[in-house]
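Reviewers of the previous submission asked for a worked example of the structure-prediction workflow described in the proposal, so we include one complete record here. The input consisted solely of the amino acid sequence. No template or homolog information was supplied to the procedure at any stage.
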Amino acid sequence: MPNSPGHHMFYHGNGLNFAVRPNPALASLMELEQNTKYIKMQLRGGNHSGNFRAKKESTLSLEYAIKKGSDFEGVRKSALDSTLLVLMGNDVIAEIPLNKKE
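From that input alone, the workflow returned the following structure tokens.
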């Protein structure tokens, strides 16, 4: 079976998909998906502000499972050293560093 770097497998079509690729420090604090060739945190849910439009601002949230006993301050500090993956179907079309300052 093919494997996707995102959280959903797209067998037909090209749905827009988002995922956070954790850095090693964050990955050590989070629950990870099993039986995948990618390092992926377990998705708990997500939401967005509606349609994504070109040159318009949108809000996106992704929620991941933290390992029991993990230090929340460590999670907070490590989270922004990770990368947001934007996928079209199962293909990564953009990688956005979360610590990027504009």
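Helices lie at 24-27, 72-79. We consider this example representative of the routine output the project will generate in years two and three.
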